[in-house]
Amino acid sequence: MRDDRTRPASLLEDPDEMRRSGYRVDDLNRGIQDRIVRSGFAMIASTRLRGRFALRLCVLNALTTEDDVMRVLDRVLEAGRELC
């Protein structure tokens, strides 16, 4: 069962709200990636999705758990909120 941590913050999921707040989604995603990678907490790659800069988490370790992935997602949301 998914918990509340799987629901992104409205600012992070709504590009229109993001624009109203003065942030561009591409810039925010770059900032999130930079913060998390620099912290050493996780390696988050990027890609282009429909022309937008998108974050990409690629799990290579077979011992990675769902909780590990959820902690990374929590950090993504935390960094996004701090940057906004």
Structural class: mainly alpha
Tell me the domain tally: 1
CATH class: Alpha Beta
Under CATH, the topology can be stated as Aspartate Aminotransferase, domain 1
Form type: globular
Q: Rg from C-alpha positions?
A: 13 Å
E-strand count: 2
Poorly predicted ranges (pLDDT <50, ≥5 residues)? none
Under the CATH scheme, the architecture is Alpha-Beta Complex
Beta-sheet strand percentage?
5-15%
The helix tally amounts to 4
| Overall pLDDT score | 82
Question: Any overview of this molecule?
Answer:
With 84 residues, the chain is mainly alpha-helical. The protein has one domain: Alpha-Beta Complex (Aspartate Aminotransferase, domain 1). It has helices spanning 10-13, 15-20, 25-39, 66-83; strands spanning 45-49, 52-56. The longest helix has 18 residues, at 66-83. The mean pLDDT is 82.
